[in-house]
Amino acid sequence: MIPSKEVTSECFAELPRGWSAMRIKYGFGLIGSGTTPPTGGARYFDGIVPWVNTSELRENVIFSTEKTLTNEAIAEFTTLKTYPAGTVLFAMYGATIGRVAILGVPATVNQAVCALAEPNRFYPRFAFYGLQASREFLASSSSGGGQPNLNAEKVRDHKLPCPDMDSQHTIVDYLDREAARVDALILAKERLLGLLAEKRRGLITHAVTRGLDPGVPLRDSGIPWLGEIPVHWNLTRLKFVAEVRGGLALGQSYRAAEVVEYPYLRVANVQDGRMDLAEVATVRVPKTEAESCLLQVGDVLMTEGGDADKLGRGCIWTGEIAPCLHQNHVFAVRPKLVGSDWLNAWTCADIAKAFFESRAKRSTNLASISATNIGELPIVIPPVSEQSVIVARITEESDRLDLLRAATERSIALLKERRAALITAAVTGQINVCLEAV
pLDDT per residue over 60-74, tens digit each? Predict the structure, then answer.
C-alpha cells in the first residue's frame, strides 16, 4: 500500500503524494468527436476509413468497424477527423455511456464518441483504464433522462489521476496482465452459460417431440424439420389451440380522455423461460384502451423480435403484477385447447425457434415476427395426462440447470466487480503494483 495521500479530485478521493489530478484537456493535444453523414448518401459509405460508433466500444482495441466511410465523406464534412492509432475513445450518449476503447488503426468516429488523441501527459492506455474507473461518476453527471448524454466539455474537464510516465507504464503493464486473467475467467463462465442454455433447449426439444418413452412407436409428422412424432400424438397449428394477442402501441395521444396509470411489460422483462421484473415501466392510457392488453394468468408471453436471441423468446405469465399490460412488441398467447405449460415448452423448443427464424422479417442485425406467423406454428398435442408428466420432467431438469445458471451469473458479476475494483485501485495508487508484481 502507499499510505501518503495528498491530492483529491471530484472522482478520486485521495491520491499518493507526488501524483496530480489532471483535467483530461491538459493531457491530450487533440480532443474531438465526429458525425454521421446522411445515410441516403451512398457515396459517403463503404469506403476505406473505419467509422466507429458507440456499440463498438467494449473496453477493447478496435482494428475494424462495421461501417466505413469514403475519403469524399472525410473531405466534405469538417466535423469528421481521422484520428490516429492509439486514440482513446469514450462513449458520451445513451445506454453505452462510459464505454471506452482504443484505436488500433486510424479511424473516424460518430457524434456520440469523444476521441482523445495526441497525448502529452497521459499514456493512452493509462487514460483508457482511468476512464473505466471514472465510468460511474461520469454517467451520474450526465443529463437527458431516458437518453443520458455527456457533452465533450464535461469529458474534457474531468480529472484523471496523473503519476509520472514511468509509473503510468508500470501500472498499465500490471493491469493488462491482471485484467486479462479476469477476462479469461469471465469468458469461460460465459461459455458455460451458453452450454447450459443449449442443454436446456435440447432437453425441452427432445421431450416435446419424442416424449419420455424411448420405445414409443413413431410416425412421420409430414413436416421435414419436425420429423417423426409419437404415433398417438395429434398435430395442429397454434392458431387453432390458442389466441395470439397483440399489445399496446406506445406514444398515442388520448387528448381529453381520462387515463389511468398501468404497469406494462417490455421485451426486456420477458427472458427465455423467466420474467425479469427488476424494472417495470408504466404507461397512462384510458381503461377502454387497456382492456384489450390486460394480461391473464396463464398467458404465454413471446417477444416479437429485436436481436436474433429475442425472436419468440418467452415464458408463462403467473400474475406477478395485477393489473398489468404488455406492449406491442410482446405477444400474449392465450391458450384455449392446450395447457399453458405445454404451449410454453413447445414454443421454447429449438424447432419452434427455427420456425420463427424462417418466418421472420429481417433488417440489419434485427428480426421480427408477426402474430399471423406465430399462429401458423405447427404444434403437437399429446394426451393431457402425458403432457403433465413431460412438463414435470422438463421443470425438474430446468430447475437444476437454472440453479447452475444463477450461480454462474453471480460468479460473473463478482469477477466483473473485482476487475473494476482492481482497475480503480491501480490507477489511484491504492495498491503498489511493483510489489504486487513480485
Answer: 999 999 999 999 999
